[in-house]
Design brief:
Layout: E1 4-9, H1 19-30, E2 35-37, H2 43-52, E3 58-63, E4 79-84, H3 86-90, H4 97-116, E5 131-134, H5 138-149, E6 154-157, H6 188-197, E7 201-204, E8 207-215, E9 218-225, E10 228-234, E11 236-239, E12 243-245, E13 262-264, H7 265-273, E14 288-295, H8 310-325, E15 328-333, H9 342-351, E16 355-359, E17 361-368, E18 371-377, E19 385-389, E20 391-396, E21 398-400, H10 408-411, H11 432-440, E22 479-481, H12 491-513, E23 529-530, H13 540-544, E24 550-552, E25 558-560, H14 570-574, E26 580-581, H15 587-595, E27 609-614, H16 618-627, E28 636-641, H17 649-658, E29 662-667, H18 681-698, E30 706-710, H19 719-733
Parallel strand pairs: 1-2, 1-3, 3-4, 5-6, 5-11, 6-7, 11-22, 13-20, 14-15, 14-20, 15-16, 27-28, 27-29, 29-30
Antiparallel strand pairs: 8-9, 9-10, 12-21, 17-18, 18-19, 23-26, 24-25
Helix pairs in contact: 1-4, 4-15, 5-6, 5-12, 7-8, 8-9, 15-17
Bound molecules: flavin-adenine dinucleotide (FAD) and iron/sulfur cluster (2 copies).
């Protein structure tokens, strides 16, 4: 940007800085006459900026944090760089000479960043706003209806010949309305009718997906419907393929597969729907029925998680036993989990004299004289029990349909070769031919992505992206997961989930139509530009992009799909040739920003520490610390980055050769329970910095000068201390010997 205007606010305590001196620096070093206003975010302040806009390409606003007043300081067609003098200096530092120097450096960095930025052009293409919903259970039906009601055309694909999923196989469903005590007729049938009557929804039953190629707004879908191929294009996808029951044959210890009268909750549901709950061994009406909770659930050897509905399902099925058979139900649980208003349902079942409930451990299940015997220890009533029953029902849990489709173990049998800690990992799909083995294994999406045919999942087989901040998001832009494929849940939650995912799909098609990305840089229209003439086909970018945005040609040259991109900048951080850049975030811009820091020569007490802070958690945490009056060292210069995974090692080299004494990267938590908004950005940064440290060691420079620390936004009270401690560590090591060279 050539024409840059600088505006300094003196409100909110910023006037305590030597603003006159800052103006002089701006004039001397950049030839810019900075304007000052005592209340820049006021109508008059903004007007002061607006009056100059016609002559400017970019505006540098030295005032409050970039995280506040975003709309106030937005000027159409102009680049805006915010310099954080309020939270970043005045509110977080004792205002002495060092703080003044900090403010001056921040203004220098801001101006240089504005000068080096370029206005992005959105990636515009002819896009489809139609939505594909995969799976016609309660979740898929709801997602389809919600999207259609909002005016979008929907393709609903169901592999079975009928719609409805598991909910259509139920006799009755849980109470979903006050007083939360009466069982209900399954809602799914009215949803099916509504879907069939909606002209915007095209239903394909007995159909599976053979291939999906392309990117959001331009997904080309190939279906196999009873052997016939159907093709269409959609803009976004909702995956609602639901759950499969946990394999009860693994529960031999509970008698399944050994005794005919040990069945699963699904089998009981089927019997109730057929009108009779009987003993499979002799067809006699089952009078006394034992329900064993958490059968295989919350058990490290089977399903380590809780399936959320099984306790409620057993209470419901106990009611079937009471009403259909005039029998008695015995429910043996680890903990009874009936959240929210379902507690009322639990209470009325407790009050029923034909329902016996106790916490306990099952020590043995066996048959004696044609009856099932269930031995229970550690009961609430204090004594061990042996219950004689006609039937034993195992409350088995739910497994995501994505589980086990392809796993690290299959693709990377040697654990050490696993590139990251996530469970499903890249297998190269470059053509429909590559999809064949996956089709045979019943894959769901069959994506033609360099990073594999399916939504990546975490260890229990549930897809994820950033479950804390946005649950429906997957690691593939434009593809959202909802219902039991995403997490175990009951129908009411599936309906909520479906609405959320439909909304996300709508948001995706609308944003990509404007060339913009989604969460967490929603609305960003900038995308990475690859100067491929200098690409060495090292494949780092195509392997490390967490969102599978980059395909690859036969030689390994990246083939970008800009609409799949979440703009994290991890590819920029990865590329050893430094040929990946954004218009608003580039190697040159960052290198220049680092160079803009004034590094005093050889003065022990004037060390310079550079902190790359993730804009999603660490940077806001620092703002919050400032807001709460926490102070930290004025020797540290904080530069926000999209993700610490976007920090290229050249930034470190530049900083150290500039004489910066220490570099701290503040990023999100990584590993299995990661909180990184770009999945593995912080993990990749950690790995890159380990390599940097080895290099430093070889150069006889202390590796401790570079450090990565994981922080969450909730660590705002700890971040100032983390910075101070790092500054102290660097003081111990002493100044960078390259200073002044
Ligand atoms: C025994 C039992 C009883 C329950 N009773 C209740 C109850 O009373 N009340 C309640 O709220 N919840 C109950 N639940 C939970 C309830 O079953 C789920 O919440 C609900 O079924 C989830 O709906 P869904 O649409 O997400 O998944 P599903 O019902 O599993 O639907 C997924 C659909 O996707 C289809 N599909 C799968 N793979 C593909 C593919 N590759 N291509 C195309 N289509 C595909 C499937 O055929 C299916 O139609 C019960 C659960 C159990 C285990
Ligand atoms: S910016 Fe992020 S999402 Fe986009 S291509 Fe690069 S690594 Fe992938
Ligand atoms: S990281 Fe850079 S050099 Fe390597 S393949 Fe990607 S673009 Fe080419």
């Amino acid at each position: 940007m050539e024409k840059v205007g600088v505006y300094i606010c003196t409100g909110c305590g910023i006037d305590k800085l030597n603003v006159k001196k800052i103006r002089e620096i701006v004039k001397e070093e950049f030839g810019i006459e900075a304007k000052v206003h005592s209340f820049l975010c006021s109508k008059e302040g903004v007007e002061l900026i607006r009056k100059d806009l016609a002559d400017l390409d970019a505006v540098v606003i030295a005032a409050c944090s970039p995280r506040v007043k975003t709309a106030t300081f937005e000027f159409d067609g102009k680049y805006v760089e915010r310099v954080n003098l309020r939270e970043g200096v005045v509110w977080s530092h004792t205002l002495d000479e060092n703080a003044q120097e900090l403010a001056e450096d921040y203004v220098r960095i801001g101006i240089v960043k504005a000068q080096k930025a370029m206005m992005p052009e959105p990636y515009k293409a002819e896009v489809s706003k139609d939505i594909l919903v995969v799976g016609g259970g309660v979740t898929g039906l709801t997602a389809a209806l919600e999207a259609a009601k909002a005016g979008y055309n929907v393709y609903l694909v169901e592999k079975e010949s009928e719609l409805g999923g598991w909910a259509a196989k139920m006799y009755k469903t849980l109470p979903s309305t006050p007083p939360y005590t009466r069982l209900e007729e399954p809602i799914v049938f009215s949803l099916i009718e509504e879907v069939k009557a909606n002209e915007r929804i095209k239903v394909y039953t007995s159909s599976t997906i053979e291939a999906i190629n392309g990117q959001p707004g331009m997904f080309d879908v190939k279906l196999n419907q009873n052997g016939n191929t159907v093709e269409f294009r959609v803009g976004a996808i909702v995956v609602a393929t639901g759950w499969k029951p946990y394999d009860a044959t693994k529960l031999e210890n509970l008698g399944y597969g050994k005794y005919a009268n040990v069945i699963t909750n699904i089998q009981l549901e089927e019997m109730a729907k057929n009108g009779e709950i009987t003993r499979p061994s002799d067809g006699k009406v089952a009078k006394d029925v034992v329900f064993i909770q958490c059968a295989g659930s919350r058990d490290e050897n089977h399903l380590p998680y809780c399936s959320a509905v099984c306790c409620l399902v057993s209470l419901k099925q106990a009611k079937y036993v009471r009403e259909l058979n005039d029998g008695n139900a015995f429910i043996i649980y680890k903990d009874m989990r009936t959240p929210g208003l379902w507690e009322d349902f639990y209470k009325i079942m407790q009050e029923d004299e034909g329902v016996f409930l106790t916490k306990g451990e099952i020590s043995k299940v066996y048959e004696e004289d044609g009856k099932m015997m269930v031995e229970v220890t550690n009961t609430l009533i204090g004594e061990d029990l042996t219950i004689k029953a006609d039937l034993v029902v195992l409350a088995t849990g739910m497994v995501s349909t994505l589980k086990g489709l392809y796993t690290v173990k299959e693709e990377f049998p040697d654990e050490n070769t696993v590139p990251y800690k996530h469970v499903s990992e890249p297998v190269m799909i470059k053509s429909e031919e590559d999809l064949k083995p996956y089709l045979e294994r019943g894959h769901i999406l069959n994506l033609q992505y360099r990073q594999g045919p399916e939504l990546p999942t975490l260890k229990y087989g549930f897809p994820d992206s950033h479950y804390i901040c946005f649950p429906y998001e997957s690691r593939r832009v434009g593809i959202y997961a909802a219902g039991c494929v995403r997490a175990p849940m009951e129908i009411a939650s599936c309906i909520e989930d479906a609405k959320g995912a439909a909304l996300k799909a709508i948001q995706a098609v609308e944003l990509v139509a404007e060339g913009k990305t989604t969460f967490p840089r929603t609305w960003d229209m900038d995308y990475p530009d690859f100067f491929l003439q200098r690409c060495t086909q090292c494949k780092r970018c195509t392997e490390e992009c967490p969102f599978g945005a980059l395909d690859e040609d036969e030689k390994g040259t990246p083939q970008p799909n800009p609409l799949r991109c979440r703009r994290c900048g991890i590819c920029l951080g990865a590329c050893p040739e430094r040929i990946i850049n954004f218009k608003l975030y580039s190697i040159d811009q960052m290198a220049s920003a680092i160079k803009a820091i004034n590094v005093p020569e050889e003065e022990e007490e004037k060390l310079r520490i550079l902190v790359f802070a993730c804009e999603n958690d660490a940077y806001p945490a620092l703002d919050m610390a400032a807001l709460n009056g926490f102070k930290y060292s004025p020797l540290a210069r904080i530069i926000p980055v999209r993700c610490i995974g976007s920090v290229n090692v050249v930034f470190i080299a530049d900083a150290l050769s500039r004489g910066i004494d220490g570099i701290l990267l503040l990023g999100c938590k990584f590993g299995e329970d990661y909180q990184c908004h770009f999945i593995r950005g912080s993990e990749l940064a950690e790995r890159r910095m380990e390599n940097v440290k080895e290099t430093l060691d070889r150069l006889m420079l202390e590796p401790e000068r570079v450090k990565v620390v994981e922080v969450a936004i909730t660590d705002w009270d700890k971040v100032p201390k983390i910075i101070d401690e790092f500054v102290e560590e660097i003081k111990e090591i002493g100044p960078n010997p390259y200073k002044g060279f």
